Amino acid sequence: MCGIVGIYLKNKKYNSQLGKFLTGMMNSMATRGPDSAGFAIYSSEKKKKYKYSVCSNTDQVKEISKKLSKHVKDIKVKSISDHLIIETALKPKKFIEILKNHEELSLVGYGSCIQIFKQVGNPKDVVKNFSLEKFSGSHAIGHTRMATESAITTDGSHPYSTGEDECLVHNGSLSNHNNLRRSLQKKGIEIKSMNDTEVAAGYISNGLSDKKSLKETLLDGLKELDGFYTFISGTKNGMAIVRDEIACKPAVIAETKDYVAIASEFQAMAHLPNVNSAKIFEPEPGKVYSWGK
Predict the structure, then answer these.
(1) Which is the catalytic residue, given 2, 55, 113, 167?
(2) Which CATH number fits the domain 46-112, given the four candidates 3.40.50, 3.30.420, 3.30.70, 1.10.150?
């Protein structure tokens, strides 16, 4: 079943409340996905700085910092639950190779704006473990999972990120993900899990790397991704939603002059400011809705 949510803030006065808004949305979707949960937060860009979101199976943060400092001169490591946010000026291609030498660390996302957190367990506990309500930013995407395509593990949890400042959450199932996985891997897209959503994320990354817009890529996907799905995808510039042309997976959008919110069910948005005066509608099948640049 799964629950998906997203929120894009048009008015910067609400940036400090982004985490609080997303917390309410995620908690409301806990019954749709009790196995695991995750979210991506987008905040202001730091020039010449990258953030690497890493899941760690050790609490030895100081030791990890020392090990990484041997390879990277300027590095900051922040611990949040079982995740680390590593900040450095070293570009992704080089830093990701360094991370591969540390088996205790698993990269879940990277970019100049994005931070990704995901964990197995009840979504309400996951949200609490990462202190989501304290986060600020411009937009965010979240997911609560009921496992169908792969095991209940952190690797099987959403959001999936296969490119810089990119992420995807998904409610549904793809039938041609195995063929697509092989095709994308031949093009150099790294797909680490057996989850169909990571394949869809790789498809989007491939489209964006070909200089297509997020909207164009999602429209192309309607022709090439077989199955039933609702996607919410994010980049550092904004977010978008698309439902397949059968549209059996639910979604509702609430838009005001201050924000756009998306969820599998309206109850996830009931706590948002002035939602009763929002334009509320169900996204049409086979149509991409996007906000931002």
Answers:
(1) 2
(2) 3.30.70
